[in-house]
Specification:
The chain is mostly beta strands and 229 residues long. It has helices at residues 46-53, 89-97, and strands spanning 14-16, 27-28, 40-41, 44-45, 64-65, 84-87, 105-118, 121-124, 131-145, 172-176, 193-195. The chain has two helices and eleven strands, in the order ββββαββαβββββ. Strands 1, 6, 7, 8, 9, 10 and 11 form a seven-stranded mixed β-sheet that branches. Strands 2-5 form a two-stranded antiparallel sheet. β3 (40-41) and β4 (44-45) form a beta hairpin. The model has no long low-confidence stretch (mean pLDDT 93).
Length: 229
């Protein structure tokens, strides 16, 4: 699932910091109750980062679509909080047609580019090329149609932007399993949802020295050609 700012939403790639850390920037969303400056990332404020990278075109007070919401430290949390992901419209229709069910695993990717720090400001590195990178995952336990949800029982989740959209029967949120449940893994070893904090070539989808949309994938993903494409 492609998530985060890019040339279409926000018009910038998300940053790869000089030390290799990844930050997927949420897209702007005028209906969200959260602003960019409400969101923390390690020692930084996301409002400052997005304002620097867009030269002020997206200021810190703009509202942000924090979805999927995978990082517990991003904002103040209710004790019952768990990672959450929303889908609506054609995207949710696609999932429904594919017969998605509890235990299925979402992988989130987005467009990223290395940044530099100049005079205390964050800037895209003009010598670096943007690339698609996997930055997070969520194995879902259950899903809820937002229009039918018991908002009292889900009070902890109502900050999420999909609870602030106009009525739409396709609007659905997915809640993560507590731990990743995959054959061969210790069921207590890995959380059911999270982010990859640092860049690794194992997470890069874009083929080396290629435009972002040209990917190099493991052969098992395209068995008919016995190779990557």
């Amino acid at each position: 699932s492609r998530k985060g700012v890019d040339s279409g939403s926000g018009r910038i790639p998300s940053p790869i910091f000089p030390d290799g850390r990844l930050l997927s920037l949420p897209i702007p969303d005028k209906n969200s109750p959260l602003t960019y400056r409400d969101i923390a990332w390690n020692e930084h404020n996301v409002g400052t980062i997005v304002a620097d990278l867009t030269n002020g075109r997206i200021p810190p007070h703009y509202r942000a679509h924090l979805d999927p919401d995978l990082n517990e430290d991003s904002i103040a949390r209710h004790p019952e909080w768990q990672p959450i992901f929303g889908q609506i419209g054609a995207s949710q229709g696609h999932l429904r047609k594919q017969g998605i069910c509890s235990g299925d695993l979402f992988l989130f990717f987005g467009l990223f580019q290395e940044i530099i720090v100049e005079n205390g400001k964050f800037r895209l590195n003009p010598q670096a090329s943007p690339k698609h990178i996997i930055w997070g995952w969520l194995q879902f336990d259950k899903s809820v149609a937002v229009d039918e949800a018991d908002r009292n029982a889900l009070a902890w989740a109502t900050y999420h932007p999909h609870f602030h959209r106009p009525p739409d029967t396709s609007n659905t949120v997915y809640f993560a399993k507590k731990h990743l449940d995959i054959a061969g893994l210790n069921p207590q070893e890995i959380r059911g949802a999270g982010i990859f904090p640092n860049f690794s070539s194992k997470l890069q989808l874009t083929a080396p020295r290629s435009r972002p949309s040209l990917w190099k994938l493991p052969g098992w993903m395209l068995p008919a050609t016995d190779g990557a494409a």
